Structure formats: structure tokens, C-alpha cells
Give the backbone structure.
Amino acid sequence: MYPSEYLYSRDHEWVKVEGDVAVVGITAFAQEELGEVVFVELPEVGQVFDAGDEIGTIESVKAVAEVFTPVAGEVIEVNHGVVEDPALLNEDPHSEGWLAKIRYSSAGDLESLMNAEDYERFTQSGETG
Amino acid sequence: LLNERGTYLDDLLVYRLGAEDFLLVVNASNSERDAEWVLRHAPADVEVADVSERWALIALQGPRAVGILSPLTDVDLGAIRYYGFAHGRVDGHRALVSRTGYTGEDGFELYLDPDAAAPVWRGLLAAGAASGLVPAGLGARDTLRLEAGMALYGHELDETTTPWEAGLDRVVKLDKGDFLGREALVRQREAGVPRRLVGFDVTGRGIARQGHPVLVDGRTVGVVTSGTWSPTFERALGMAYVESALAEPGRDVEIAVRERPVAARLAAIPFYRRPR
């Protein structure tokens, strides 16, 4: 269910590393918890964040959730498609529903993330609040 | 249920079971406080008991409610008016069947012995499956009551709001004798109601939710009491208290959604009225 080449945060973001760029999105678990997504707000290209900073919000029928970047760096691209069509986040969170591409400044940020197997166990542990 | 200030302790239903026998159906979260209030103010010849533990309630809501319930009950459902009730049996269990609910749709609330609740629930689901009956939680109920413009305790109603402000004039009878809060209500009516409940549609991007400020020209003129995404209308909408002079449907306002001003337009409530 969770792509094995991705890394995962305890806040339910995924990271796909492409060279010096980290593609960031939210996991299938997160979108399932949120329910039908109706609005997505993303950062501006060129904004610089520390790891753990809020880079956007996702509003569903039921709730609003912040998106945190698991890596520090500069936003080089955002997914306008998911802003236009928020349902992409529900339908394809791990691919078409990506949120932002960040040129990360420290590979160390990646080391604290989980692999797919650990993340899946984490979602089943009941400590995901 | 008002206090001396004419503001809401709770919003409740009163069933007149007999000439001098009344059942109050209150919000569960307020039941202890309500019981204490009623006990404290009851004259000596009135007996009051908290019977919350003896009743369970299942709401069957929607335009097909009559069709689903009819085969399971000996009660003549057609004879029960909106907000009326009758005693009978549902799926073999004793029940008080009431034509009420908080969805804005036709439907019934079934008051049962707690032991009967689970079997009746299962019996209803089985009988209604072919008609599309499904379990629905508070989230769904909250969306429906909001679309129907129904005030909910803890949102539109609380100890800071009066019936005039909430637009509930129709349930207040000033000509039927004294009651707690009457004097305060008369006073507020004479002095003028400072704010009124009004609907809104979000025309910008975002969902306004409880507590978000309503702005006109950058000035806070009100506050959102309920807001959600409406699946029926496919837009964000809600209700807010707004200064009376400004609380007119059609007025363009902004709502600060997590500090960010989002365009909205005041609207008449209810948003949805069921076909009758």
C-alpha cells in the first residue's frame, strides 16, 4: 500500500527523494482520516522552510489539517492540479496528489523518517493521533 | 430552557405524556445541569426525576422513513403530526414514536427501553436496507441540521444568546403567563436586539467554522456559530451572529478563516427546505 521507495513522517507526510529534491505529499492513511478533501492551500515557490514548518493546509468536509514539511529547504514547485481538483488527494495521494517539491538543504532530515514498513506499523499502532 | 437573563440553559423537547405528566428530552451533555435546574425551581407539589438511564433513542430520518417504519409498527404513522407522538410497538418492543428529528427531513424518533435499542436498531437496518437505510453519525446529522438552519445548543444557543437573537421568536409565548427569563426578554425586545442569527455562503475559498470572526470593512461585526461544507449545495456555508443593523441576507462580508479573510455573503436561513 505504501510505496517502498518513499520515506514517511509521524505527521503522515510522505517524501520521495529525487536527487536533491524532496517531493512531499500526505499519505493514504492521512487522506482516509480526513475524508473528502475540498480545499488545499500550498506554499509559494521560493519560500524557504525549516523542517517541521507548516507549508500548507488541507481542508476536508470534517476537519482542517496542517501540512508540515519533513525537510528544510526551498520550495521549487507546487502542485496546482491538486489545488484545482482537491479530490486528487483522496484518489491518488501517493502520486497525482503530491503537494510540493522542496530542494532540501540537509540530508540529515531524511534520517529521522520511517520506511514504508515502519510507517505501516505506525499507522496500526494506535499512537497516530 | 432559559435562565433569569433570558439566555439558553438548553434547547429541549417537552412531551406531555398525561394531563400532569411531562417528559423533557434534553441534550445529553446538559442533562445533569438541566435536572438540577428543574429540581431547584420546581414547586413542592411537583415531582421531578432524572430518568435518563431508562430511555434510549433512535432517530430514523429521511423521506422514506414512513415506508420503512410502517411494516414494523402498529402505530398509525400517518396520524402523527410533525412534533406529535404516539405509543405503540416497534419490531415487537414498546416504544414512544415521535415525528421529530434534527435533520430538517421527515422522520421519527423512537424512544425505547435501553435493552430494546440494539434489537430495534438491527431490525430497522434489516428492514430498511432495500430502501437505502444506512447508519449515520453526528457529523452527518450536523450537516443536515445546518442546511436546514436549525439552531444547535453549544453553537447558536448558549448562556449568552436569547431566543430573539436566535430568531426563535415562534417558540416564545409572552402571553401565556410568567416564566424564568420573561422579564429579560421583554426588556431586550424593548431595548432592541443587538445581534441576529443569519446564514452565510462562503464565496471565496475555504470553510468558515465556529468561532471565526465576521468582518465588514475590516471591522469585526459578528462571529460564526456553525460552518461546514454542504454536500447538498456543494459549497461552504454556515450561520453567524452579526450586529442587527448589518445582519441582512445579500450583504457581502468577509470571514477570517484562521486569520485569513475569505469572501462570504450573508444568506437567509434555512438553506434547505424539504419538499412537502
In short: The mean pLDDT of chain B is 96. Chain B has six helices and twelve strands.
